[in-house]
Automatic annotation (TrEMBL):
Span of domain HTH araC/xylS-type: 422-520
Keyword set includes Cytoplasm: yes
InterPro entries according to UniProt: CheY-like_superfamily (IPR011006), Homeodomain-like_sf (IPR009057), HptR (IPR051552), HTH_AraC (IPR018060), HTH_AraC-typ_CS (IPR018062), Sig_transdc_resp-reg_receiver (IPR001789), Tscrpt_reg_AraC-type_HTH (IPR020449)
The name this protein goes by in its record: Two-component system response regulator YesN
Length: 524
């Protein structure tokens, strides 16, 4: 701790130096000044905690010095020492918030009692200031987390309490419930992985600061981390006048910082935050990735069907069972070709693929009675170095997953094959449209007709003929739901060359003619 004694009389300064118990109060540096000008120079340089000053001095007097101290940002405790019991001096000392006023000649007890009080008060206030600084630091760190949590909850479900509305109005100066709002989503997974080496917190902190610095200029909205998603940055606009300009600026700033392209999905306006968010989410999930647009809206969503990997499960299963990588690659190339030309190549499509592949893989592992201890390879790196989507890399990643699966199954001690009747059942499901005879099945599976007939009925409760007929009737029902197909086309589609015979069999199994069934379905 430091102190300064300001007095034009040297003997007074020396007296204070001798009388005050400096060490007791932790004061180890004592400065001296002969007048106010010299004092200001020393105070500015050393910023002492305790100041003793005379009132009558040459050049700049005590009153002028008190005025300067009062106007400065110093937290020092000023003790006036004067030989004059002058009301004007005391009035100025009180007005400019000096700590105390001591008259000369100085009594040691009074001096040290006053010094003790001044030091204690300075320490208490210093601790209070330190606590306030720490509290402010914590608040500045916690505040963004609070708003992240609040706005994230509103994205999931619109349920703003009166307290929430008031806090938003207090913080942002808007009546949020009365404004139409727009949401934009920025997925940051490529940025997290390629620029921040997987550090999500640092990525969110950096990118949200970039966005909010721009949004705060005209109070257009707020950017926050969606706590319900792993890697999603959300921009909530409550001023829609500058949305397009701001998104282009944000895109440009993020690219300048990261040198990575990203997607910004902009939804449609709504007074409800959760509806505005859901609109942006649908744009994000359904837009075509191959278009490579930087900002996508609902106009970029094309109504194309999703490709379901489950529809190709039989072909893939037999290719995998063969243990041939070439057969699996051939099947995959056909599926990829269909995906690219006839389906929506969107993030939603990628999610459907991931989910259905995991389902198929688990089923096949269960069928082979394989307990996989180590995790499987997850081929999710289908983004170029600049952050844009790569269909080529997607195909490569999916091929790696299938290749690993083939190796896993091939390494198993045995391949658990389904029993003969299950294989025959699968064969019938795939060839029900053909004119299959019992002899054909016997020849294919190297079993006797008698054994097949007896065993199949034992397992299923009906004959092979009845089983095929049931399959044909179920398929026929689905085809009849299409009003543009003629009855003879339906009959031919399920393996009957004669329309009348088909109608007879259909009525026997369903209890009504094909036309009656179609009419019933159209009215339900």
């Amino acid at each position: 701790m430091k102190a300064i004694i300001i007095d034009d009389e040297k003997h007074v300064r020396e007296g204070l130096l001798l009388l005050a118990e400096w060490d007791k109060h932790g004061i180890h540096t004592i400065l001296e000044a002969e007048d106010g000008d010299q004092a200001i120079e020393l105070i500015t340089e050393h910023r002492p905690e305790i100041i003793f000053t005379d009132m009558r001095m040459p050049k700049r007097d005590g009153i002028t010095l008190l005025k300067w101290l009062h106007a400065s940002d110093l937290k020092s405790k000023t003790i006036v020492v004067s030989g004059y019991d002058d009301f004007e001096y005391m009035r100025n000392a009180i007005y400019y918030k000096s700590f105390d006023y001591i008259l000369k000649p100085i009594e040691p007890d009074v001096l040290n009692e006053t010094l003790d009080k001044a030091v204690k008060e300075w320490n208490e206030q210093a601790q209070s200031r330190k606590s306030q600084v720490e509290e402010n630091r914590v608040m500045n760190e916690v505040k963004p987390l609070y708003w992240d949590r609040l706005f994230s909850s509103l994205c999931a479900k619109e349920s703003m309490t009166t307290e929430m509305v008031e806090k938003v109005e207090q913080e942002f100066g808007i009546a949020i419930t009365k404004l139409a709002k727009t949401v934009a989503l920025i997925p940051i997974k490529p940025i997290v992985e390629k620029l921040f080496q997987g550090d999500r917190d640092l990525a969110f902190f950096t990118l949200s600061n970039i966005c909010n610095e721009l949004l705060r200029k005209q109070n257009d909205g707020v950017c926050f981390r969606n706590g319900n998603k792993e890697e999603e940055l959300v921009i909530l606009f409550w001023n829609d006048k500058n949305v397009t300009y701001l998104l282009e600026e944000i895109y440009s700033l993020i690219y300048q910082y990261s040198k990575l392209f990203t997607i910004i999905a902009l939804g449609q306006k709504s007074r409800k935050i959760n509806e505005a968010y859901e609109s942006a989410l649908q744009v994000y999930l359904k837009h075509t990735l191959l278009d490579q647009k930087k900002i996508v809206t609902h106009k970029d969503v094309k109504p194309r069907p999703l490709l379901h990997l489950l529809d190709h499960s039989n072909e893939l299963k037999w290719a995998i069972r063969s243990g041939s990588g070439d057969q699996v690659r051939s099947q995959l190339e056909g599926i990829f070709s269909q995906m690219e030309t006839g389906h929506a190549l969107s993030l939603e499509q990628l999610q459907v693929w991931e989910n259905q592949f995991e389902l198929l893989r688990n089923n096949w592992l269960k069928e082979y009675e394989i307990q996989q201890q180590s995790p499987f390879y997850r081929g999710l790196d289908y983004w170029n170095e600049d952050g844009s989507f790569s269909f080529r890399k997607f195909k490569e990643e999916k091929a790696k997953e299938f290749s690993e699966l083939i190796q896993t199954l091939s390494k198993a001690k045995y391949q658990r094959e389904k029993n003969n009747m299950q294989q025959i059942e699968e064969y019938l499901q795939q060839h029900y449209q053909e004119d299959i005879t019992l002899q054909d099945i016997a020849d294919r599976f190297y079993l006797s007709r008698e054994y097949i007939s007896r065993k199949f009925k034992q397992d299923h409760g009906f004959t092979i003929t009845d089983y095929v007929t049931n399959i044909r009737m179920e398929k026929a029902k689905k085809l009849l739901e299409n009003p543009y197909l003629k009855i003879y086309e339906v009959a031919y589609g399920v393996g009957y060359g004669n329309e009348k015979y088909f109608s007879k069999v259909f009525k026997k199994h369903v209890g009504m003619t094909p036309n009656e069934y179609r009419h019933l379905q159209s009215n339900t």
